[in-house]
Amino acid sequence: MSDDHLQKVVSLAKRRGFIFQSSEIYGGLKSAYDYGPLGVELKRNISNAWWSSMVHAREDVVGLDAAIFMHPKVWKASGHLAEFSDPLVDCLNCGGRFRADKAPQIEAGTEVTFRAGGRSDGEERSGKVGERGYVCPLCNAPDLSKERQFNLMFRTSIGPIDPLEKAIHEIARAQMGAGEIRRKIEEALKPSSIYLRPETAQAIFVQYQNVQQSLGMKVPFGIAQIGKAFRNEIITEKFIFRTCEFEQMELEFFVEPGSHEKWLEYWAEQRMSWWKNFANSPEKFRLRPHEADELAHYASACYDIEYAYPWGWDELEGVASRTDYDLKKHSEESGAKLHFFDQQKTDPATGKAGVRFTPYVIEPSAGLTRGLLVYLLDAYAEEEGQDADGKAKVRKVLKLHPTLSPIKAAILPLVKKDGLPEYARKISKEFFDAGINSRFDEQQSIGKRYAKHDEIGTPYCITIDHQSKEDDTVTIRDRDTTEQRRIPASTAVEFVTGALSSTSAGATSVG
Ligand code: ATP
């Protein structure tokens, strides 16, 4: 898969109404995207498929939809205020900024060449890679600033009072130096500071007790959540792969200490097979265990589910064993007793019934918007074909799994006359009544309509022609094989419903 493949998907996403740059008419806001009419359907279909498999299909998982704003102490207890940062480096040659941990590793002392100012017409220079073992990923220069930690949380303030007003008066009256001004401002902002959540997980830990008690859940059990998360990323990149506003699908699964290794393997395997189930190329997903030095401070073990993106293997989901770190930290900070009392067990120390423990947590944490990119990349294909006159033509097709396709069936009258649109509208209504997202489409030639629906991943095109009026049959065209066959008009809904309930990747063949 080449970078060209990414560019083709980016262009299709805009042209066909999947994804637009945020605030585009004002020049666009870097790193934020809007999901257009087809994008919102695709995103919902992915999140619904996740929710069905993680919540509806299981007795041991329940859902949550928590607020984005949370008490600031949540982020103190979780360690995000102190630790949720990336190492930021400035390039002294081109002025670019990058994450030290994402820069390509090169052995210290290696001689590298680069262009002055990072400009293609700049003078060629050379230098040696420093002790830290990397160069600027933008211009290859080894002249770099020190690493400094940059907190990724977005901060804002809550309440009707301007927190800075008083500080501004004081700063104006006393002639303060830069350091003192910063301290004053920090002091003024602190009481009303609030953060946009950088992950959905913490709300689940904070509501652990309410959920466990209100539903009488018994360990092992899980709480699932889908929602927005925000990170002030140093570099936003690769379309919707890394953005400042994105969506996550997270499960926190609470288990008895000692059983966590087994559950980690279980969830890593479950999540891998879920992603692959909707993909055309399952071999492009892999499970990579973290090295000890890669582990987050709270994790005892972790897998990354990676995808073979056009730029190489990279993360799609993390499946981490988080120990009892989060529940313990929130217990300490809040005073709430976030444990589980198992009445079925006997305490070996006292011989009495009931054992109390703080559950360990296994966390499969997936990017919804990143997953959407993965399925677009997986689905986009170009095939050699012929046009109506037999000339060679490239067919662009989005081979989305029918469960994920934004539109499940296109209802197409062959021509805009002779009563065919009226006939087609009747079939369209049957699809509406059955709750299947279909589209009546009478614009342009039938060939152009097929091409459009191939490109947006519609698995079935149902065409109403003159014969339909005579014998109540329609043709149904399969997106992937382009084969067509005639079926009774009255079975069109049944055909599509049957195909949608199939769980195999790719559309059910018409032939
Ligand atoms: P990375 O190393 O790429 O910065 P991470 O390890 O910090 O990611 P997690 O905190 O484990 O990511 O988040 C879980 C999932 O959320 C990721 O696997 C990814 O799919 C998604 N995600 C995280 N950050 C972003 C982002 N800035 N934009 C889009 N999706 C993201």
What is the CATH class of the largest domain?
A: Alpha Beta
Question: What is the CATH architecture annotation of the largest domain?
Answer: 2-Layer Sandwich
**How would you characterize the largest beta sheet?**
7 strands, mixed
- Tell me the domain tally: 4
What spatial form do the alpha-carbon principal axes imply?
A: globular
Cross-sheet strand order for the largest sheet: 3-11-12-18-15-14-13
Number of helices: 15
Rg, alpha carbons: 28 Å
Helix content class: 25-40%
Low-confidence sequence ranges? 503-511
Indicate the proportion of strand residues: 25-35%
**CATH homology group of the largest domain:** Bira Bifunctional Protein, Domain 2
Distance between the termini: 30 Å
What is the third-level CATH name, the topology of the largest domain?
BirA Bifunctional Protein, domain 2
**Content-based structural category:** alpha+beta
**DSSP E strands, number:** 25
